[in-house]
Amino acid sequence: MADLEKRLRVLDRIEPPDLWGDIRTRETSRLLEPRPANRWVSMAVAIAVAALGIGLVARAFLGESRVAQPGPTPTAEMSAPAVANGEIWFQRLGGEGGTWIEAVEPDGSNRRVLFSDAHAGGVDDVGATYDWSPEGSRVAFIDSTGYIGEVPTGSSWDVFVMNADGTDRRQVTDDGGFDAAPSWSPDGTRIVYASDRSDPNRPACEMDFSCNVDIFVVNVDGTGQLQLTSEPGVDWQPDWGPDGRVVFASERDDPAGDVYVMNPDGSGIARLTATPEHDSQPRWSPDGTRIAFVREEGDSFGLYVMGADGTDARRLAGDLSTSHSVEPDIFDDFAWSPDGTMIAFVGGGDRSDRLFVIGADGSGLRQLVEDEAGLSSPAWRPQPTPHRGDVTPVPATNGQIAFVRIDPDSVLARDGAIPERGLFVMNPDGSNPLQLVGNSAHPGFDPAWSPDGLRIAFSASLEGLHGILVMQADGTGITRLTSCVVPECEGESSPAWSPDGSMLAFWSDRDGREGVWAVTSAGTDLTLLLEGFSPLSAPAWSPDGRLIAVAGSLFNADGTVGPPGIFLLDPEAQEVVLTIRPEGLDLPSDLTWSPDGEWLAFAASGEDGGLEGAGIHLVRPDGRDLRLLTAWSCPTRTCTARDPEWSPDGSRIVFTRAGHEPGSDGSNGDLYVVEVQTGALQRLTGGPGLDCCASWQPIRER
């Protein structure tokens, strides 16, 4: 048994092969070096960017055309996660004074400069058309990368992302075209945008509206670029909705321009508006049930809202006169409030621009900001919901099972290298296994499904670079959240999502501080939650978000290792609030919470490593009602059970049973499912190698 445990621990801490070069080829382009911007050129380019938003007005006539039937209308059940209304960002053109990005609270208070090309301590070029990531930690925007000396020419505008505080600025696209109107995917891993990059007449037609403009999508790390539209003319101003569809403006059927919707792969294009007026700037409401857009009204514009299927269009505001102007106001741009109850927009007259807020039903119009310099492009920040303590578990059905397959008898292993491993998904009955990543691409370990079932987090270690990564459910869009290198750390592993998907807890010894760490799903705000901990399991977040359970040993004050146990950590207070040491068992490990929060499942051997009582156990979070769930006769002393994981509906547990075949030395094992109520077992996988580390996908009702 000791030899078995030794081999399993070796497998647990196995280092993947040195294939970081494959990931390195997917890194984003070199970050843009800040350059001082000529204020006149900068202002002219910014005005041109704003003009593009309403530039389709110049194409005036309506031709006969049939309206395509849109897809299913989103319902309230498709709502995005609840968020509060944070600050509103907007752009200000300062004439002689340069360009600013400013912020103001939704009540009009606390107006302040964030970034500027004209004030000390700011960045050298602020970019344009900002868009907040779904969780409110990052912004996407466009900026010029075409320069003559230190003067931006505007010949190339690309998509960038950065943290809300301006740090970690990264270039996403680098295609030599005019890229604009970035919009985040609902899960924050991709960006849809418009570009004239595919027009062969570039750059002769730049900014004069004669180029073909198409819609593209790209992963946030710059990989996986895909063209979604290719019709002659202009497809423009895409906005990614919470149900996954993209709404956009286009002149494909009418030079005046109308609103369309399509699937995120470019299929299923449907026309939503077909009027003599020019319709543009469509924006989804946060719950996906409505679309706001701008409609040309003679010499002015109106702000409208319609249903997601294009019906019931009604006017909210327009033609706003004030004491400063008798001219009709125009709309520059607008943004929904994150809770969907209001819309912020910019209206302008002959003397000043003003930032307004209006109710989504057309009521409660009020002015927040007035400025003679010129305002544009409001972006309303989502205020993330608390990730601890306020989460109500959402029932989920059982989706696929993600797991790791290790082949200790592979050619690589026989050559003295690392055994081949792959990260797979399969159906809950064991059918249709599909490899997502592996030794030839991104060797991964410790898969963990996100609470919405759309992403998989995993750990990887390549060329001494350790970290937590996230990918789409189909293995695409791999994004790195954390990274550390030897000697900064020896490992980083075992990610676990918070119930609302905003955070991941994981184990790391970075900076010489071993323990449980946390990072946002955007890769920001790295935090040490519990220092001095030697883990035997991945951290496991309770369904209500209040506790993190982890098995292992705490370090004593003198540096020695204390006795093993199950520890319940309060992530807010960053302290252990309860310790459980199951009687008669040795080395509890591999913890997982039941979906209702009533039970912890874990693996353990018998006392002193014995087989008596070894298997998968259940215990209440307060240490009561300990019971053995799995029990079987074993032909050798190599039997072990490990890596339990609850099904999302709470009826079953998937786990690895190793060493159960006669003659096995414990390095081979398969996945089994056990019924929690009856103890009935079902074998899911078979064959050589070790299948382990399963994670069960939740399928949320929508």
Structure characterization notes:
The longest helix has 16 residues, at 39-54. A hairpin with a 6-residue loop joins strand 37 and strand 38. The relative contact order is 0.10. The protein is mainly β and 702 residues long. The strands form 13 sheets. Strands 30, 31, 32, 33 and 34 form a 5-stranded antiparallel β-sheet that branches. It is built from 4 helices and 52 strands.
* Number of distinct helices: 4
Indicate the structural class: mainly beta
**End-to-end distance:** 48 Å
Morphology:
elongated
Task: Average the pLDDT over all residues and give the rounded result.
Answer: 76
Percent of residues in helices:
under 10%
What portion of the residues fall into strands of 2 or more residues?
A: 35-45%
Largest beta-sheet characterization: 5 strands, antiparallel
Radius of gyration: 28 Å
Number of strands: 52
Oligomer: single chain
Show unreliable segments.
1-81, 118-123, 147-154, 320-330, 385-390, 410-418
